[in-house]
Write a structure and sequence with these properties.
Elements lengths: L4 H13 L11 H15 L3 H9 L12 H25 L6 H4 L3 H7 L18 H9 L5 H5 L5 E4 L14 E16 L2 E10 L2 E7 L5 H4 L5 E11 L2 E5 L2 E4 L11 E4 L8 H15 L9 H7 L4 H9 L4 H33 L9 H10 L6 H14 L6 E6 L5 H14 L3 E6 L2 H18 L1 E5 L3 E5 L6 E6 L5 H12 L5 E5 L12 E6 L9 H7 L5 E6 L5 H7 L4 E5 L10 E5 L4 H13 L3 E5 L7 H19 L5 E4 L5 H12 L5 E4 L12 E6 L7 H8 L10 E5 L5 H12 L3 H18 L17 H17 L9 H10 L8
Parallel strand pairs: 4-6, 9-16, 9-17, 10-14, 10-15, 13-14, 15-16, 18-23, 19-21, 19-22, 20-21, 22-23
Antiparallel strand pairs: 1-8, 2-3, 2-5, 3-4, 5-6, 5-7, 11-12, 12-13
Helix pairs in contact: 1-4, 4-6, 6-10, 12-13, 13-27, 14-16, 15-16, 25-26
Length: 817
């Protein structure tokens, strides 16, 4: 028999979801049925079936003229009929296990037709979920029916291959269907337990359930059960030990004989209870989920329907469809994410028009010529990309990635100079005050090579001979005195100052620019997500350049920063040395100190990174002070040591950094604040305490503080008692120099959430998508771009649901970096 159950079932389920308005098929159900039933009836040979077929008026139900209630009843009756029909077909055919195990039974089919409520209601609307059960689920982050539908198992046990008892293999997870011959309570290892003997046509096997005497009463002789679990050997005979089991009934198997889901659990939730509950929820509610993807897209990308995907992700019929379900759900996540970031980008670029800069070739050339080095090819390429962007009236939105020491600052400086040459202001923002000061110093040095420093104070310098007007650069940081600060702010507001260097607070606190044309944000992974849009709130659409030394794997970059265009400096300036990295055993501390002494003796300098103390910055600072005292009094009494920690005032920090940079200090003892950006070419040794507690990328950042000059540099890592994962990291950092490769490894070890703090970043969760899903990500991105080209506001009726979903995942006030 070959009636096409599937196509009719799909149509009817759709009709149910659409609320019985006869819109499931083009032209109406009557027309569709006439066609379908005409073919189907010919292939039915069973007289009983033909009878029922006609009773249902399948050939001509007059659906159009039924009331809604009548339609509902009729659809339900037909779905029941189809479910039975499917069952019959499987029985006659090639069922893998048993009919009931493989195909949804009629009962579940009926159930799915009964609900018509929003899936955003709390889970207590579900029959069987009490408020105390709801509390347990809320601990798992599950509050609404939707949450429950998206509460996916972390994996499945494959109990789908049925064996006969004679085929059982010791040590394997096996599934059998058998009759209970006897079941009784017994004592095993002093505990009340259950023992049963079950059999099929090939033999008998013993089952024991430890510590569970109650089963003995449930298992009656001659009951037919499905048993799934590990087979072991006892006294030379096979035995199942505490397997999953369930009755063979007219309903789908939940715990055995299939791919069985394993859910994350919390105190007070039992696996069998959750599975049973989930099965009911899926059957009843999955079909209520509106599929928000436009049909054309689904077809193009070969994606499952959403309800089907949800249901198959929980209770898959087989591995193939389970994989398809994951693809569909992962696609959704990536697609919505891409739509979100693209719409942010569009808002950014089309919200207000920016300021096109023209390339002032002579200014640029003079600047580049004055540098003590030539730009690397990679720097030149990136500079070109920047200049092209800056020439457009659409504001630039670009991420510049480049290894530690690859020379991002000078490229950014050239862009800032272009802003100033075009009469705009440029802002250069660093994550810490120390770095802001360093940039101020660096930029000062670069500019004095081009022009003459006219006036100069600690926080304000002016250079003539660079532009047609004096070029004024200011440093604006937290604790310069109030009067000066106000004066500076006034001069920024009046447009007198061309380039303003500061921390990220520049854009947050009361700084008013007169003509902000370009904002450069250094070390973006420290740059919170809300800051960028703060710029807009100031009424500017400057070009934005975000720089990071944290190499972001491409997938992650596209996922998290899909709204940014990407530039990469993938080349270090010539002559850079590989930093020799060594993980030392705790017993080698003394020789590490001796090594530092020798380096200092040949007039090099060293960093010592203090042990990481997590509680608070205050405690961290206190620990650093103690370590500094110990080192300067007990270990290196003859050397000049300095201390740097986050609780020092900017003034103090600045003093220490200056002394270190000018060679007045031999060793800089520091908390991890030294992590980013600090540039002291004469520093050749770094010692990192409790190195196992830092992430790979962070260790790589530390290491990047040395090896910036011509001398061979060294990084020594101390770890007291590293964990497994700590050891793995230390091994990797020893071996790998390439930041990108380390980032990939870091990603594998830590997962994307931790890697970038996605959880705090206001980005939607990725549950199904993996960062290795590059092809899927690119598909999602290209579909998102395509959609944006045709219907940017998602205003078309076929995109209505999609717009709704987008608004749900990305509420209006979500701010993306
Ligand atoms: P990062 O990309 O880590 O911010 P910096 O911009 O601080 O790197 O540059 C690191 C060092 O390399 C600086 O001392 C800088 O002057 C120097 N540098 C930059 N570009 C070049 C180059 N093309 N050739 C030689 N040295 C360079
Ligand atoms: Mg830098």
């Amino acid at each position: 028999m070959s009636i096409n159950v599937e196509s009719l079932r799909k149509v009817l389920e759709l009709e149910h979801r659409k609320g019985y308005v006869d819109s499931a098929v083009f032209g109406g159900l009557d027309k569709f049925l006439k066609n379908w039933a005409g073919q189907a009836v010919e292939s039915i040979t069973d007289p009983q079936l033909v009878n029922r077929f006609h009773k249902l008026h399948l050939v001509n139900p007059g659906y159009a003229s039924l009331t809604k209630q009548q339609r509902k009843e009729w659809v339900k009756a037909v779905l029941d009929f189809l479910a039975e029909e499917e069952l019959r077909e499987v029985e006659g055919g090639k069922a893998k296990l048993t009919p009931v195990a493989n195909k949804p039974s009629s009962r579940s089919r009926v159930q799915r037709a009964v609900v018509n409520q929003s899936i955003d209601l709390p889970i207590t609307v579900i029959k069987g979920i009490s408020s105390s059960l709801a509390t347990k689920f809320s601990k798992l982050g599950v509050k609404t029916v939707r949450d429950l539908l998206y509460f996916f198992p972390h994996r499945h046990l494959d109990y789908s291959q049925r064996k006969s008892i004679s085929q059982l293999t010791e040590g394997e997870e096996e599934t059998i269907i058998a009759n209970v011959w006897q079941a009784q309570e017994t004592r095993l290892g002093g505990r009340r337990s259950t023992e049963a003997i079950v059999g099929d046509e090939t033999g008998n096997v013993r089952i024991v359930w430890f510590n569970n005497p109650y089963l003995a009463k449930k298992l009656a002789t001659n009951m037919r059960i499905v048993v799934s679990g590990r087979v072991s050997l006892f006294n030379g005979r096979h035995v199942f030990e505490s397997p999953e089991w369930e009755l063979v009934e007219d309903r789908e198997l939940i715990h055995t004989g299939r791919l069985v889901p394993l859910y994350p659990l919390t105190q007070g939730l039992r696996p069998r209870q959750v599975r049973k509950l989930m099965k009911g929820v899926i059957d009843q509610w999955a079909w209520q989920v509106e599929d928000f993807l436009p049909p054309g897209l689904k077809e193009r990308c070969n994606l499952l329907e959403l309800p089907q995907a949800i249901s198959q992700a929980h209770y898959p019929e087989d591995e193939t469809i389970k994989a398809q379900a994951r693809v569909r759900l992962a696609f959704d996540e990536l697609f919505i994410l891409q739509l979100g970031v693209l719409s942010k980008k569009r808002d950014w670029q089309e919200g207000q028009s920016g300021s096109p800069f023209s390339v002032k070739a002579s200014v640029l050339e003079t600047f580049l010529k004055s540098l003590p080095f030539e730009l690397t090819a990679a720097q030149q390429k990136v500079l070109k990309e920047l200049l092209t962007d800056l020439g457009k009236s659409q504001p630039m939105s670009r991420l510049l990635q480049g290894e530690v020491g690859s020379g991002k600052t000078v490229v950014a400086m050239a862009a800032l100079l272009m802003a100033a040459a075009n009469g705009y202001q440029g802002a250069f923002m660093a994550p810490t005050e120390i770095l802001a000061e360093q940039h101020f110093a660096t930029i000062g040095q670069l500019l004095s090579r081009v022009g003459h420093q006219e006036e100069g104070e600690g926080y304000l310098c002016s250079y003539s001979g660079v532009l047609s007007h004096p070029l004024t650069v200011a440093l604006l940081i937290g604790d310069i005195n109030q009067v000066r600060k106000q004066e500076l702010q006034q001069r920024i507001a009046s447009g007198e100052i061309d380039i303003i260097i500061g921390t990220h607070a520049l854009i947050q606190k009361g700084v008013e620019f007169s003509q902000l044309g370009l904002a450069v944000v250094d070390e973006q992974h420290r740059f919170g997500v809300t800051q960028r849009s703060a710029l807009r709130q100031k009424g500017f659409s400057p070009h934005v350049l975000v720089m990071t030394a944290t190499p972001i794997p491409r997938t992650l970059a596209l996922t998290l920063y899909g709204d940014l265009d990407l530039s990469v400096i993938d080349q270090l300036p010539p002559g850079r040395q590989v930093v020799k990295t060594k993980w030392l055993k705790p017993g080698q501390r003394e020789s590490a100190y001796a090594f530092i002494r020798r380096q200092v003796a040949s007039s090099r300098q060293a960093f010592i990174i203090c042990p990481l103390v997590e509680e608070s910055e205050v405690i961290q600072a206190r620990a650093a002070v103690a370590e500094y005292q110990r080192l300067s009094q007990e270990v290196f009494p003859e050397l000049r040591l300095g201390l740097l920690h986050g609780r020092m005032s900017a003034d103090e920090k600045d003093k220490v950094m200056r002394r270190f940079r000018s060679g007045e200090l031999d060793i800089l003892v520091s908390t991890p604040v030294v992590e980013v950006g600090i540039d002291v070419p004469n520093a050749t040794v770094m010692l990192v305490e409790s190195a196992d507690r830092f992430g790979l990328s962070q260790l790589h950042q530390f290491r990047g503080r040395v090896g910036r000059g011509q001398e061979q540099s060294y990084c020594m890592l101390l770890a007291q008692n590293p964990s497994e994962i700590g050891r793995e990291r230390l091994d990797l950092i020893e071996k790998i120099q390439d930041g990108f490769q380390l980032a990939e490894e870091d990603l594998k070890l830590r997962g994307p959430g931790e890697f970038f703090g996605t959880r705090q970043s206001g980005l939607p969760d990725l549950r199904m998508a993996k960062l290795s899903d590059i092809a899927l990500l690119e598909l999602a991105r290209s579909e998102a771009i395509r959609l944006f080209q045709t219907d940017p506001s998602l205003g078309r009726p076929e995109h209505h649901l999609l717009a709704k979903e987008l608004a749900r995942v990305w509420p209006k006030d979500t701010e993306l970096s």
